[in-house]
# Entry
Amino acid sequence: MPTGRVKWFSLEKGFGFISNDEGEDVYLSASALPSGVTTVKPGTKLEFSIADGRRGPQALAVSIVEAPPSIAGASRTNADDLAAIIEDTIKILDRVGNGLRHGRYPSEAEAERLAKVLRGIAGEIES
# Structure
């Protein structure tokens, strides 16, 4: 099975291109990605089969061989700083929880900020 690396991929457009080991560009549709994978980063090594499409070679049955190293993982937040951020977030969640007990939902702006903070913390913990 041929292999190659992702040149670029756009989640918005739903496609991108792979540079195979022979240097040829191969069209990569989002529908060819493995189940549960919605996007791939440039540099990701893929294994795939090729079919002739309307506009040239097209990747099918794609599997990820090797993901590029994460830049986020290399720049992790200091553990003490992350602990302080989590403690502050717990205080915010406590305040929101008390408001909910009294029938007060957070405003749309508050809810959006809180969700952004929680996603950020989750990303730091996962990296």
